[in-house]
Design brief:
Strand order of the largest sheet: 1-2-3-4-7-8-9-10-11-12
Radius of gyration: 21 Å
CATH class of the largest domain: Alpha Beta
Bound molecules: iron/sulfur cluster
Number of domains: 2
Distance between the termini: 48 Å
Order of helices and strands: HHHHHEEEEEEHEHEHEHHEHEHE
Helix content: 25-40%
Structural class: alpha/beta
Number of helices: 12
Largest sheet: 10 strands, mixed
Length: 383
């Protein structure tokens, strides 16, 4: 059964209009950039199925395509002559692809406190973007936090990315290349990448098609070979895109960041996202949870004196009601010093209150790398 959303006409029209303009501007810069760096065929710039179709039209066979993707994404080998020699990729296909561009790895910084690593890349148009290697509890396992945009138009007040002046969508290949280079670095260190989160710079759903193409390639067994459930895409609550994602049936995890439980508080903390009422965001989350038959992940940046009181816990309980959720609490990290995380006692009181009012799992997520500005909301390409 297809779940129908109750229309909220004025807000929906405004939001769609606003999102349309915003994505067209981003799209314009991305198309311009892709035009300037145009290549005949880049396997990283599209979902694997689409690439397979194009490769077949060039006379390649599915086995050659699998070998190519496994050399390029699985092994990180970008030299076309090696594809032919060692992976038996036909010359016609490698000629159509040619020399592929890479992001320039400019700097790697490691946190002495918790081992988080921040990778700073430069694009061909000299924009800086950042990627984070997150150590996991399992020995030697790491997750990669990827950026989907340079800068972000969502304007969340506690986020350094929102304050960046340069902005554009990243091409799918730039997202995939962050992962390939981070994975190669992890391998050199004897670690293995077991997860991917789209929680770096940018709002992934403002760059929907490219993010989904990149995620498909990272999931593909002969691409990145990361399990769909180990890939998380986060959004600050773009309702049309959440519905699209739900309707398209993607199996990656979705994490929806609420900011606050009331429209008034969201207008202060996440002003652009707050143009959509929080009840509409929650309704989209509910449709997603029902369509998937599983808990939807809600994330919540905790800010002392702003959104961690008993009243916030009560409002969140009423908002979520009977929707099956997993609630992740994250301490705010604001290098400007304007916003502070709750003290341990405040956080414990909020978590207890939330557990009482929600009656569902509440998890405190560690946002590490704060000492090297690699924590959530601190990525800014070292501007
Ligand atoms: S928190 Fe996320 S959505 Fe908000 S401005 Fe920062 S990158 Fe954009």
């Amino acid at each position: 059964m297809r779940l129908q959303r109750k229309p909220h006409l004025a807000t929906d029209c405004y939001d769609r209009y606003f999102n349309e303009i915003r994505s067209r501007v981003d799209e314009y810069f991305c198309v311009l950039y892709e035009f300037e760096t145009r290549r005949m065929l880049d396997p990283r710039d599209q979902a694997p199925q689409l690439f397979l179709d194009k490769a077949l039209s060039l006379g390649a066979n599915p086995l050659a395509v699998r070998r190519l993707l496994s050399a390029l994404v699985g092994q990180g080998i970008h030299n076309p002559s090696v594809w032919g020699r060692s992976f038996q990729v036909p010359r016609r296909l490698s000629d159509a692809i040619g020399i592929l561009p890479r992001l320039k790895l400019d700097r790697v910084v490691t946190s002495p406190r918790d081992g988080f690593q921040k990778l700073r890349f430069l694009t061909a148009d000299q924009l800086a973007l950042e990627t984070v290697l997150i150590p996991l509890h399992r020995d030697g396992a790491v997750s990669v936090c990827l950026s989907s945009q340079v800068g972000c138009a969502m304007g969340c007040v506690f986020c350094a990315t929102a304050r960046m002046t340069a902005r554009r969508n990243l091409a799918a290949w730039e997202i995939v290349d962050q992962w390939v280079q981070a994975r190669d670095l992890a391998r050199e260190q004897g670690r293995r990448v077991t997860g991917v989160v789209f929680m770096g710079m940018g709002e992934p759903f403002l760059n929907y098609d490219r993010v989904l193409s990149a995620a498909e390639l990272l999931r593909c067994p002969y691409g990145g070979a990361v399990g769909a459930k180990a890939i998380t895409i986060s959004t600050v609550g773009l309702v049309p895109e959440i519905d699209r994602y739900t309707d398209e049936g993607h199996r990656f995890r979705l994490s929806i960041s609420l900011g606050a439980a009331t429209d008034a508080k969201r207008a202060r903390l996440v002003p652009i996202a707050a143009r959509t009422p929080v009840a509409d965001v929650m309704a989209a989350a509910r449709r997603h949870a029902l369509a998937r038959g599983e808990r939807v992940m809600l994330s919540y940046v905790c800010i002392r004196g702003e959104n961690v009181g008993e009243d916030d816990a009560i409002a969140l309980g009423q908002l979520v009601a009977d929707t099956k959720v997993r609630f992740d609490l994250i301490d705010v990290s604001d290098p400007t010093g304007r916003f502070h995380p709750p003290t341990s006692a405040e956080m414990k009181a909020f978590r207890d209150a939330l557990t009482r009012h929600l009656g569902q799992p509440v998890v405190r997520r560690y946002s590490g790398g704060a000492d090297i500005q690699a924590a959530c909301g601190t990525l800014a390409g070292a501007e």
